[in-house]
Backbone:
């Protein structure tokens, strides 16, 4: 009997039997915008602890975790919305932080309390914690308290697109030591529901790693009166840190960056209210920019200013050198812009919106595969699943998602997403056949919504936002038809890869019919839809080339058009550049790109690329200065100029087919793939060319402008090419 009782006690302590399910808990149900809550749980661990203890942690909206006074997670949780009524959860191994005997769990929760272009609020602050290996679950035994030091700043506040609020921290209301000692005013938390219950819904495992934490860097700064200025190493995501001394306390410290007002809107900034004496503070709401500004009373002594850089956990493993330094600068700025536009999700800009618009994602995806380590694949896969899982019951794809502010179809962007630059490009670079199987029925259903009109073109579908590009002179009928043709080609490839031969033939038949209709729009040396009255659209000519609609005999006239018509925004200019290379006009592709991007690439005030051709241009949606869609040139330089692209999934086979235009230039490129690093080093006039093929791969290598190739297997190879001299 005694032995049975002892076993029962042990089972209860370690949660292997008789355990109750974890509950979602909150602070008495009264939570509003920008509410910060402290949760505490002390428990006893008897006996030897398991070597691995996985805790399942979910919140609306963000959390910071300490165990026994040690910080375990800095900004955990993902913005809500893997699907319209679902919440992401983290898996955290807490075993290294626990000890036999008494343990202290502390969670600081930040509840956004409002919707945004990247977050769907549940409507209630909540914490879910389940570590079944030791029977540690969230329930009413957890104590909690609102952290009154946290509040919201006065106006100006962030624009409506952002779910985050400006944080105002009043140090006079600080609660020092609450992570290890429980103040008397903490009270029992309120149980709301079990896993899957409302308002948080289904729990979906976090598909990306925890954010990279670079630690705190002490910064050099200048001070002039009440203003401190810190020049940051790049346009980065960071949380500011200050150490200061105040005689009386109660002074306001204003914290912002050169992007706190940008894109014609107010974005994130912060405020701090001092307490008497020496103090340090880190504002936990991340902001971005090249410059940090701290404005404070001139009598406050500042001892240190610093920042903690954070961001998506990925590294730039690319190198690009070119004998035209403009494109080296472009590559560097493009990568900087790419890195500052990813965190919980991809976004168009890190200051004004943080929204996952899929026209942007398609361009960013291409850049990622030629620069970042394969860890980026997880963020791309997350974005793909979100796009599919937020589709309407009728199968309409919409963006930005996740969101609580409403979605729009934007047919051009959705067709680009399911086309060769979107889902298919992901598959070719990763070999992720399971995701291809997941998306194929979604693609098939979406394309079934499109019909042909009486002209044989894509029937114009009226949606919430019929957006084709920023700028003017948009031949929308043919823009949609071009993207539709590309999507049909991609769907055919998906069907063939998955063994649906009959469906592949149907997509091919639809493509041929659309191609005939498109070619009936060829008039006076350019493509123009019957009812279009504007100037000839350069975007349309590019799409016709890329979709295989324009025959080679039309190339000289299209080239002539692209030398005079310049209407594409930086978003669509990538496709114009690519089309010029495809037609064999690589020299002009480089010339046009340098001319159009010169102002933003050579700008020394901003470390990143712009949304439009000019800063703040009203014609380009407000003109933010950190828009990664402008970096599409990176993809074209790698795939067309250097000619490197996969021909079998996961880079099992690929080609290196440099454009003829590169023969007279010297360049080198190196980037990671799922199989390893690919390199190509060409020195004009040297007669030698060095390439590196990852082990287990095969590369078809062509001389510039030539149709014959040689196959090379894994390793480094030096190729003698007399025509290159």
Residues:
């Amino acid at each position: 009997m005694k032995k049975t009782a002892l076993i029962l006690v042990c089972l209860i302590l370690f949660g292997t039997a008789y355990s109750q399910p974890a509950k979602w808990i909150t602070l008495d149900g009264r939570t509003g915008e920008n509410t910060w809550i402290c949760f505490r749980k002390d428990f006893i661990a008897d006996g030897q602890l398991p070597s691995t203890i996985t805790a399942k942690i979910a919140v609306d909206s963000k959390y910071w975790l300490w165990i026994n006074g040690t910080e375990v997670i800095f900004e955990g949780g993902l913005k809500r919305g893997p699907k319209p009524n679902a919440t992401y959860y983290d898996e955290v191994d807490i075993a290294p932080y626990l000890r036999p005997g008494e343990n202290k769990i502390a969670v600081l929760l930040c509840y956004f309390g409002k919707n945004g272009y990247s977050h769907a609020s549940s409507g209630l602050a909540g914490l879910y914690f389940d570590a079944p290996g030791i029977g540690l679950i969230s329930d009413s035994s957890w104590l909690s308290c609102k952290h009154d030091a946290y509040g919201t700043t006065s106006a100006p506040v962030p624009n409506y697109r952002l779910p985050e609020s400006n944080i105002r921290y009043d140090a006079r209301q600080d609660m020092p030591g609450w992570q290890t000692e429980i103040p008397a005013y903490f009270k029992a938390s309120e149980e709301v529901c079990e896993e899957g219950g409302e308002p948080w819904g289904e729990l979906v495992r976090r598909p990306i790693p925890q954010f990279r934490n670079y630690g705190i860097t002490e910064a050099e700064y200048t001070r002039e009166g009440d203003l401190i200025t810190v020049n940051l190493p790049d346009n980065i995501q960071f949380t500011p840190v200050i150490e200061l001394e105040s005689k009386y306390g109660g002074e306001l410290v204003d914290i912002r960056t050169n992007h706190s007002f940008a894109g014609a809107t107010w974005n994130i900034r912060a405020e701090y209210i001092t307490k008497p004496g020496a103090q340090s503070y880190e504002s936990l709401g991340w902001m971005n920019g090249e410059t940090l500004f701290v404005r404070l009373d001139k009598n406050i002594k500042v001892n240190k200013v610093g920042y903690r850089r954070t961001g998506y956990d990925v590294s730039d493993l690319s190198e690009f050198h070119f004998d035209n330094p403009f494109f080296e600068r472009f590559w560097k700025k493009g990568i900087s812009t790419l890195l500052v536009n990813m965190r919980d999700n991809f976004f168009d800009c890190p200051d004004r919106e943080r929204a996952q618009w899929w026209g942007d994602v398609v361009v960013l995806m291409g850049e990622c595969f030629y620069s970042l380590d394969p860890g980026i694949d997880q963020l791309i896969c997350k974005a793909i699943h979100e796009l599919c899982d937020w589709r309407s019951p009728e199968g309409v794809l919409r963006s930005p998602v996740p969101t609580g502010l409403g979605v729009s179809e934007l047919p051009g962007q959705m067709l680009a997403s399911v086309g060769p630059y979107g889902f298919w490009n992901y598959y070719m670079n990763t070999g992720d056949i399971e995701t291809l199987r997941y998306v194929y029925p979604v693609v098939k259903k979406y394309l079934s919504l499109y019909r042909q009109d009486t002209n044989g073109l894509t029937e114009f579908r009226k949606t919430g936002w019929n957006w084709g590009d920023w700028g003017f002179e948009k031949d929308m009928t043919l823009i949609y038809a071009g993207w539709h043709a590309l999507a049909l080609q991609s769907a055919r490839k998906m069907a063939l890869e998955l063994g649906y031969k009959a469906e592949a033939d149907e997509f091919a038949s639809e493509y041929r019919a659309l191609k005939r209709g498109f070619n009936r729009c060829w008039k006076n040396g350019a493509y123009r839809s019957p009812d279009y009255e504007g100037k000839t659209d350069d975007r349309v000519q590019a799409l016709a080339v890329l979709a295989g609609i324009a025959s080679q005999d039309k190339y000289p006239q299209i080239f002539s058009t692209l030398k005079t018509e310049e209407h594409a925004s930086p978003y669509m200019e990538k496709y114009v550049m690519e089309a010029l290379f495809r037609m064999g006009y690589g020299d002009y592709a480089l010339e046009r790109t340098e001319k159009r991007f010169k102002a933003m690439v050579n700008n020394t005030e901003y470390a990143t690329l712009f949304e439009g051709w000019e800063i703040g241009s009203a014609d380009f949606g407000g003109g933010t200065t950190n828009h990664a869609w402008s970096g599409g040139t990176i993809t074209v330089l790698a795939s067309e100029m250097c000619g490197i692209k996969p021909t079998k999934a996961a880079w099992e086979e690929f080609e290196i087919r440099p454009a003829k235009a590169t023969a007279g230039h010297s360049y080198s490129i190196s980037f990671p793939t799922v199989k390893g690093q690919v390199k190509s080093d060409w020195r004009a006039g040297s007669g030698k060319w060095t390439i590196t093929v990852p082990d287990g791969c095969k590369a078809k290598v062509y001389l510039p402008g030539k149709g014959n190739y040689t196959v090379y297997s894994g390793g480094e190879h030096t190729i003698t090419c007399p025509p290159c001299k």
Remarks:
- The longest helix spans residues 476-498.
